[in-house]
Amino acid sequence: SHIPVDHKDNTLTFHNYRSDVLLYNAMRRPKVIKKGTRLGYLLCCSTFQHPRMFYSSHYRLHGTTRCTGMNPAFSNSIIKDDFHIGSSALSNNNSTCTNRFILYSADKLSSSKKVYNSTVTQHLNLLVQNVQNDEHKRDLLALLRQFSNIFDTTRHNVANTPIPHVINTIPHSPPASRPYPQPDKEEIMYQFIQEFLQAGLISESNSPYAAPAMLIKKKDNSYRFVVDYKRLNAITIKDSFPLPNMEDTIFKLGKGFSYFSKFDLKSGFYQIPINEADKMKTAFITPFGLYQFNVLPMGLRNSPPTFQKVMTDTLKSCRSFCLVYLDDIIVFSESFSDHLYHLRCVFSALHDKNLLLNPPKCELAVQRINYLGHTISKDSITPMKDKIEAILRIPEPHTLAQANRFLGSLGWYRKFLPKFADVAAPIHAVTNLTKPNRKNFKWETAQSKAFHQLKHMLITEPLFLHFPVDKSPLILTTDASDTGLGGVLQQTVELLSS
């Protein structure tokens, strides 16, 4: 029932509101294309110098919006079905459009890229269920279906990356430990091992290395499989590849973007390969034998830098509209048309590297999004509500460790709290202790008052920051006292009437 479209040369240009597309009938019998049949997608890309055109069956395309748009057009004149036109192609002001357009066939891609199973279909439908605009929803769902293989959580993938994890060590004797005794969890441990073996994540090992494996109970009463690589990490040379600065990442999102999408990789570390010669160093011991990882495990000293390196390399062509912090990917755009194209670029990059996403933790084409502990919109940034609620549930400290944990929980949000340093000074006074003096920790009335005042500040409106306005002057005001210092960065902005 499908009519394939030949898109070997899939770059289109328009002249006098017209472009030509080569169609062919793969059936042995004539096929009638009815008016209103959806044929494909037309995406507006960046301008280039040497456009090429198709010549064959002629269909006049009428458009009224500018090339930068992605609104549906040509609905009355072009035949549609397997193809849907998702971008207006022509300018009001000029009969020749110099932008590049990519035409791709949903039908052709279905045979090579689409994954059809009920789980994937359900995931894709859930991803667009909150999109209110019907046209946006249709375009997003079609794009997701095109790249449905990267949302297939029923399989395990190892990334096709030139950056395997390498474990460089100082001269040493291989550290070997005995298995940790967890007799009440042995059956659960055995199930983990069998699942890992079946998925190809681990292999049986004859390595001289042996790190102890254990199970840690999670909040939902399930278990997390972990390996204690403390002794291996002690002899591992540090990888200095930098992780992104979270504050800089948040700031980059404050440039007036209207659409955001967020993606999380499925068991991200387990998709990264390990250098063959270093696999034996990951060996871990259990009551059932010795095994080693074929993929990157959590707990290794340089696991985060390697993962960041792989993701930075994978998405380097998307850096102008995509940021990645470990396995948290965010895509941001000024318009929906741009966003659809940006998503396609990101999906294509992930597909090329054979990386899988975790659909339940993804969010598509929203105008307000939670990312790295903050809620971000076009105009402002605020702390995430559930993060604030978690801080409010922290009981009053009675030990140095508890006091430090409380201050640490406020670290990312102190920029929202006026005079934070002054208010928190009594707590800092009893926590900034040298090691010999830590036994002198005390929690008295002053510390208790500061504790409750800081919590109150977290629920006092307004608790948000506006993003700076480009080209408006910045005014920095500072002050200091014996107990703290602080500053306020302000702008005088002329408000424009709508």
UniProtKB/TrEMBL annotation:
The family database entries (SUPFAM superfamilies) matched by this protein are listed as: DNA/RNA polymerases
Q: Which domain of life is it from?
A: Eukaryota
Where is the Reverse transcriptase domain positioned along the sequence?
197-376
Q: Which Pfam families does this UniProt record tie to the protein?
A: RT_RNaseH_2, RVT_1
PROSITE patterns xrefs: RT_POL
Fetch the Gene3D superfamilies from UniProt: 3.30.70.270, HIV Type 1 Reverse Transcriptase, subunit A, domain 1 (3.10.10.10)
Xref: InterPro entries: DNA/RNA_pol_sf, Rev_trsase/Diguanyl_cyclase, RT_dom, RT_RNaseH_2, Viral_Replic_Matur_Polypro
Any one of the GO BP annotations = proteolysis
GO MF annotations, alphabetized: endonuclease activity; peptidase activity; RNA-directed DNA polymerase activity
Name the UniProt key words of this record, in alphabetical order: Endonuclease, Hydrolase, Nuclease, Nucleotidyltransferase, Protease, RNA-directed DNA polymerase, Transferase
What PANTHER family does the database record attribute to this sequence? POL PROTEIN, RIBONUCLEASE H
Q: By what name is this protein known? A: Reverse transcriptase domain-containing protein
